[in-house]
Design goal:
By secondary structure, this protein is mainly alpha-helical. It has four domains: 82 residues, no CATH class; 247 residues, no CATH class; 136 residues, Serine Threonine Protein Phosphatase 5, Tetratricopeptide repeat, CATH 1.25.40; 224 residues. Helix content is 55%, strand content 5%.
Length: 881
């Protein structure tokens, strides 16, 4: 394990063990082993020819990822493992090959001052480990060296710049091998021995001998392009073609001496800035001319060599030239170095800092750091540094000390971006996800170029199936939004405010102009708009209409943006609207009492517009109705209905429901006739008729309600109506209700409608009434669910279903029990007539003074006869008569 010297010199604690922890990356190592295996198979084939400069190249493996993801550490670990298997990380499988593997790692970072000459020398120094001259290459390199470094020998140069080549243990052997190669050539040509040491003096003789196919240079004569290179001007251009000669030399090695050269190039993003590709062009030429060498490249960005539009900037471009470097697909050699998993983050922090053999950072802080990091190793490393800094200040670090982002992440992200790209990056950090047109509006840019260049960066993630397919790596986005930005072109608070306003308008325009707007688009725009309006304290504008559209479908996906702090009272209209919509979605999972409390708080804040205020009151009244608070519900519905606004018709429907709950059926019928589609008149009529035992008529009304909802593309209403159709039909005909239940479940599958799902379960119980199909167990599970949700009215419906079941079985004691429960459940709320219906089912008459005050349409005797007839019909069907 490598010691972290920064930490060693940053603390006086002799017991502190600080190591450069290495975690995971098994998948990347698997990719390396696979590439090595495939490469060895390719170059071992009889048809392989290193001099073929026309065939596609498959000798590149690219690892790319955001800054700080661990690419350099990965490159070093690969080099160490290929050099000595005993240095292999414990997680990695061993790699065995019949051919010796020689790695050569080259740092392309600007700080390393790497140029083409250093790259070529580094590759040749690695090959020196074979202990043999490379005659074709060494001759060309000697000529280049003599011309470009007059008066300085290669040996002297390597000695003076030893730090650049310190990793190559054979650096001292290279000058000797080159001199040996020159001496052998001079001797073959019968040149004076002293002349053989001077490359320039033998070049013309060698070229002449090659042109004349001199028998003494028969071996070198097989290198078809050697003479051309020796005659070329010995400049950088000529040097970039000399790796072709080294590839030829390697291919001529005796079988027992052959080795596979693996060149690892790190920090490739510093090679070019996507505009000036001069060095990248030369490096690509080296890669192309050495097809028998595997190049493992690490950098921030994907290689663009398979992009045919770069023809002219690079020598070889297009998918046909680099078949494995195109867009991601099966078999691609461009691999994204991903984030650490939660367990990897834990392992990293456990081993990063240790004191007396134990993890220095406690578990609670490790959890906070790991969660905040989103798996980015650089964030973990910066957090470890902050931990030590706090200790040096005499403080005991706490989890709250690490709930922050680091400015260093911004510097690492922005350092190689142009100013327009930086502006675009800051703008898109405001958006959860985005498209190019949306990002252009948010950034205030008229041209796409900065954004399209940004797409190649590894911190931009892509989901092709999404309407807005691009999004930022979460920790990068968080850092740009919240950490101190010390760059020269940093944005002021006013700049951020203007960008937030632009982004908000852009999202609204997208929603308004999308030709075929679907539910997913509405929810995405609403969620994004709420977040922007909340963060920048903007007016609601288009959000109000979007909220009404969201509510009208009754689907109830989560739309509230995430909050980073504990819930506090709303202070802006956007916060109040987000809390309202979040409450409406959460009510499918929370107790109705909690729904009522949250909506009451929003109403009392007074932050919503009048129409949105009506929306909150209306849904509060619905929650109160479910809780059995009929009087409070009636007050709220009456207030909204009297206002005549957008929710007046739903409120009138609510009043019709309340009349039905109270047993005032004539009033319910009169109200239903004036509701129309906006008041869901067909469903209200269905709800009216099934308590009268007219279940088939009710089912027909529910079917009409479903059809009307489908015509208006209101999915939630269609599913709700179908669930009630199942309930009504289950009393009458258990044989046909299975298909209806299946349809209801299909309609409900993409929706979040808890009450409707319960209605389907009630229908399922009704279908099996009078049988032993585990009724007791199913009832218990459903009762517990209703209790958790606070559905008082639906608990009464469950008792009514059980009353039907008991009546079919002639279980008088069971009927008595359900009637007692119904009396208790309806004592203070509505549905008191359920007690009457339970008596009707059992063929009983209610005792004097115990009947409800229900005003039955057609009279109670007709209703009693119909319910008793439904029970008798079920008994006959089951053979119980």
């Amino acid at each position: 394990m490598v010691r972290d010297l920064r930490t060693v010199f940053g603390s006086n604690d002799a017991g502190l063990a600080a190591a450069e922890a290495f975690t995971n990356r098994q998948d990347q190592w698997q990719a390396v082993m696979k590439a090595l295996t495939e490469h060895l198979q390719e170059i071992s084939a009889a048809s392989f020819d290193p001099e073929n400069v026309e065939c596609p190249r498959r000798n590149v493996l690219m690892f790319h990822g955001v800054g700080g993801i661990g690419k350099t550490t990965l490159s070093r670990k690969i080099e160490a493992t290929l050099t000595d298997h005993n240095r292999r990380p414990a997680q990695w499988q061993p790699f065995t090959a019949s051919t010796r593997v020689i790695p050569a790692r080259i740092d392309l970072a600007r700080s390393a001052g790497t140029d083409l000459e250093k790259i070529v020398l580094s590759i040749r120094l690695a090959v020196a480990a074979l202990g043999r001259p490379m005659p074709a290459f060494d001759l060309a390199l000697s000529r280049y060296w003599e011309h470009n470094h007059p008066g300085q020998t290669l040996e002297e140069h390597l000695r003076r710049t030893g730090s650049a080549f310190v990793r190559f243990s054979n650096s001292a052997a290279l000058p000797e091998q080159m001199q040996s190669a020159l001496g052998d050539i001079a001797q073959a040509l019968f040149l004076p021995g002293t002349v053989g040491a001077v490359a320039g003096q033998i070049t013309s003789a060698v070229v002449a001998a090659l042109r004349e196919r001199h028998s003494a240079l028969r071996a070198l004569a097989r290198c078809t392009r050697l003479a051309d290179l020796l005659e070329a001007e010995p400049d950088t251009e000529m040097l970039s073609f000399t790796p072709h000669l080294l590839a030829w030399d390697l291919a001529r090695m005796p079988q027992k001496k052959k080795a596979l050269l693996v060149v690892l190039m790190d920090t490739f993003e510093d090679v070019g800035d996507r505009t000036h590709r001069d060095l990248e062009r030369l490096i690509q030429r080296v890669v192309w001319l050495m097809p028998n060498v595997l190049f493992v490249i690490t950098g921030r960005n994907r290689l663009q060599w398979a992009d045919a539009t770069l023809q002219g900037q690079l020598d070889w471009t297009g998918q046909s030239a680099w078949p494995q470097l195109g867009q991601p697909h099966t078999g691609s050699r461009q691999i994204l170095v991903g984030d650490f998993s939660a367990q990897d983050c834990e392992d990293y922090l456990v081993h990063r800092l240790r004191s007396n053999g134990q993890p220095l950072i406690d578990q609670a802080i490790r959890h906070t750091i790991a969660t905040r990091s989103h798996g980015l190793p650089l964030h973990l490393d910066l957090a470890a540094g902050r931990y030590l800094e706090l200790k040096r200040q005499g403080r005991d670090p706490r989890p709250a000390d690490f709930e922050q982002d680091f400015p260093a992440l911004i510097a690492r992200t922005l350092r190689d971006l142009t100013p327009p790209e930086r502006q675009a990056l800051r703008a898109v950090s405001l958006l959860d996800s985005w498209s190019i047109p949306l990002a252009m509006q948010a950034a205030g840019q008229r041209h796409q170029a900065p954004l399209t260049r940004l797409l190649d960066r590894p911190f931009i993630q892509y989901e092709p199936a999404a309407s807005w397919p691009y999004h930022l790596h979460q920790v990068i986005r968080s850092s740009i939004r919240s950490a101190d930005d010390s760059s020269d072109d940093r944005w002021s608070p006013q700049d951020w405010q203007q960008a937030g306003q632009r982004a908000f308008i852009a999202v609204g325009n997208y929603l308004a102009t999308t030709p075929q707007r679907d539910r997913a688009t509405l929810v995405a725009c609403l969620r994004q708009g709420l977040s922007l309006a909340r963060d920048f304290r903007l007016e609601l504008d288009w959000l109000a209409q979007a909220a009404f559209d969201y509510v009208s479908d009754s689907v109830w996906e989560s739309v509230a943006p995430p909050i980073s702090a504990p819930a506090t009272p709303s202070t802006t209209a956007a916060e109040a609207l987000a809390e309202t919509l979040s409450t409406l979605a959460r009510r499918q999972h929370e107790h109705r009492q909690r729904t009522a409390e949250r909506l009451t708080a929003v109403i009392h804040s007074g932050l919503l517009t009048p129409e949105l205020h009506d929306l909150a009151i209306y849904y509060l009244a619905k929650a109160q109705r479910d809780l059995g608070l009929s009087d409070l519900s009636r007050q709220g519905m009456s207030t909204v209905a009297a206002g005549g606004g957008r929710f007046a018709f739903p409120a009138r429907r609510g009043l019709a429901h309340l009349s039905r709950l109270a047993g005032d059926f004539p009033t319910t019928l009169d109200t239903a006739r004036g509701l129309g589609w906006r008041g869901r008149h067909h469903r209200v009529l269905g709800d009216l008729w099934w308590p009268h035992g007219r279940t088939e008529y009710a089912a027909e009304n529910y079917k009409n309600a479903r059809t009307e909802a489908e015509e208006h593309a209101v999915l939630g209403e269609a599913a709700t109506s179908q669930s009630m159709r199942c309930f009504a039909l289950a009393f009458t005909d258990p044989e046909i209700v299975d298909d209806e239940i299946e349809l209801a479940r299909c309609l409900l599958r993409p929706l979040n409608l808890r009450a409707s799902r319960v209605n389907v379960e009630l229908a399922s119980l009704l279908r099996d009434a009078g049988t032993s199909a585990d009724i007791a167990g199913r009832v218990q599970a459903l009762r517990e669910d209703l209790h958790r949700a606070g559905f008082v009215s639906m608990e009464a419906s469950l008792c009514l279903v059980l009353s039907f079941h008991r009546a079919v079985l002639r279980d008088q004691a069971g009927v008595d029990g359900e009637i007692a429960r119904l009396r208790e459940l309806t004592r203070t709320g509505g549905y008191a007539y359920y007690v009457d219906i339970a008596h009707f089912m059992a063929g009983r008459r209610t005792a004097a003074g115990e009947a409800s005050s229900a005003r039955w349409i057609g009279g109670a005797s007709d209703v009693r006869a119909r319910w008793r007839g439904l029970v008798a019909q079920r008994q006959l069907w089951l053979g119980l008569q």
